[in-house]
Amino acid sequence: MVIRFVFQQKLILNGNENKPIFEHNILQNLDFSKSTTQYNPAVSVQNPGEGLRMRPLCRGDYDKGFMSLLSQMTKVGDVSREEFEARFTAMEACPDSYYIVVIEDTMTKKVIGSGTLVIEQKFIRKCSSRGRIEDVVVHNQYRGKQLVKLMMDTLMVLSQQLGCYKVSLESEDDRVMFYSQFGLIKEAGQNYMCRRFKEM
């Protein structure tokens, strides 16, 4: 058991732990000139706050509390390293589809924020793409630092820069006003419907 664990650790730490799920320069090259979001004090992708770094999700983030962070938002379950690795690999195998952005506290080496943009390829609208924003969460201890706002702003700008004809998210009633500052609206005649098959 110990030998197997050490072997797994070596696989992760064999230069792959810093491999991002998408290219880091995509974040660095985002154009926020059309964003109307206001920040006080100023924060950005390059400078999200003192001791913080905004970047793509990496394979090594399993050891930096990524799954624990997600559990502050919803049910996660007991996800093993092997399961995390398999899912990361599956997402990585679908280029231009999964953009998972995280915020890391560089002092504690923990992931304290995350948000996902999923790109859905379409045949309609001349083979266009639609963006879906999912799983936006900031660690309880880091709230009130404009990090959710910055994450949302980043994912919105990213979706537009990637050529999406629209972007959407699912929201609880008490969050609708917050999300409206990013240009998101409740469209008349549109309803979100859901059928849950089983609880995980």
Notes on the protein architecture:
The chain has 200 residues and is of the alpha+beta class. The chain has a single domain (2-180), classed as Aminopeptidase (3-Layer(aba) Sandwich). The chain is 28% helix and 20% strand. It is built from 7 helices and 5 strands, in the order ααβααββαβαβα. It has helices at residues 2-12, 24-28, 66-70, 81-92, 124-127, 147-161, 176-180, and strands spanning 52-56, 98-105, 110-121, 129-138, 164-169. The protein has a 5-stranded mixed β-sheet. The chain starts with a helix and ends in a 20-residue tail after the last helix. GO terms for molecular function: glucosamine 6-phosphate N-acetyltransferase activity. It is an enzyme of class 2 (transferase). Keywords: Acyltransferase, Transferase. Its EC number is 2.3.1.4. It catalyses: D-glucosamine 6-phosphate + acetyl-CoA = N-acetyl-D-glucosamine 6-phosphate + CoA + H(+).
Per-chain topology:
Layout (H helix, E strand, L loop, with lengths): L1 H11 L11 H5 L23 E5 L9 H5 L10 H12 L5 E8 L4 E12 L2 H4 L1 E10 L8 H15 L2 E6 L6 H5 L20
Parallel strand pairs: 4-5
Antiparallel strand pairs: 1-2, 2-3, 3-4
In short:
The protein is an alpha+beta fold and 200 residues long. Helix content is 28%, strand content 20%.
Percent of residues in helices: 25-40%
> What about the largest sheet?
5 strands, mixed
Mean pLDDT: 92
What is the CA-based Rg, rounded? 18 Å
| Count of helix runs | 7
User: If strands are numbered along the chain, what order do they take across the biggest sheet?
Assistant: 1-2-3-4-5
CATH architecture: 3-Layer(aba) Sandwich
